[in-house]
Amino acid sequence: MLFQEPPQPPPQPPPLAFRAAALNRAGHTIDVGIQAAARVSATVIIARHGVRLGRAGAQIDRGGGEVSVRIGPKGLKPLRKGLHVDVLIYWGASEPLRAHPALQLKNTLRI
């Protein structure tokens, strides 16, 4: 070979990271905590056993934020503390950021 291409640079780390997923029964949502190194828009998909339970998009500011994914009544009923769900975070890369956390409970009272 007369000309050889230079090696590809390694992919850059994502500008965000998954923090936690909390079940909020009063609000009918799963709240997903995300840490961000820069302002980024993200779409969060929650699934269980390959069945999509909900999807929400948000603009995450630098430092972090929370995305509330609304879950319907049929999807919310079997969920409880400790169950694992699939969290896919799409932020502009070809592959989403994936996490498989156990749900925590979020104690919020509506008065």
Summarize the structure in words.
- The chain is mainly beta and 111 residues long.
- It has a single domain, classed as Immunoglobulin-like (Sandwich), CATH 2.60.40.
- The chain has one helix at 73-76, and strands at 16-24, 29-36, 40-48, 51-60, 65-70, 86-90, 97-99, 104-105.
- A 4-stranded mixed β-sheet has the order 5-2-1-8, with no helix packed on it.
- A hairpin with a 6-residue loop joins strand 6 (86-90) and strand 7.
- The radius of gyration is 17 Å and the shape is elongated.
- The protein starts with 15 loop residues before the first strand and ends in a 6-residue tail after the last strand.
Quick overview:
The chain is mostly beta strands and 111 residues long.
Strand line-up across the major sheet:
5-2-1-8
Order of helices and strands: EEEEEHEEE
Radius of gyration: 17 Å
| Beta strand % | over 45%
Q: Could you tell me the number of beta strands?
A: 8
Range of helix content: under 10%
- CATH architectural arrangement: Sandwich
Overall number of domains: 1
Q: Structural class of the secondary elements?
A: mainly beta
User: In angstroms, what separates the terminal alpha carbons?
Assistant: 74 Å
Largest sheet: 4 strands, mixed
| Low-pLDDT ranges | none
Count of individual helical segments: 1
**How would you state the average pLDDT, rounded?**
90
Shape: elongated
CATH class group: Mainly Beta
CATH fold group: Immunoglobulin-like
